[in-house]
Amino acid sequence: MNLSRRLLYASEVWEVARPRTALTAGHLLIRLTNPATAFDVRSAADWLVCHNAARQALADTLGATRCTVMFAHQWHPIGAAIGEPEAESSTPTFHLFGRWTGETVTPGDQLLRPTQRRVPVAPEDLLKYDDGLRAALRRSAVEHSSQERAAAARWHFAAVLDAGIATNCHLGEAPALASVPLEAAPLPELVEDSPTATAGTRHSVISPAMAGPLTPRLLLALAAAVEELIGRPGVTGLSCVVPDPGTGPLEVHALGRSAGESENPLRKFLSLPSVNQALL
Question: Rounded to whole angstroms, how far apart are CA atoms 99 and 279?
Answer without folding.
Answer: 9
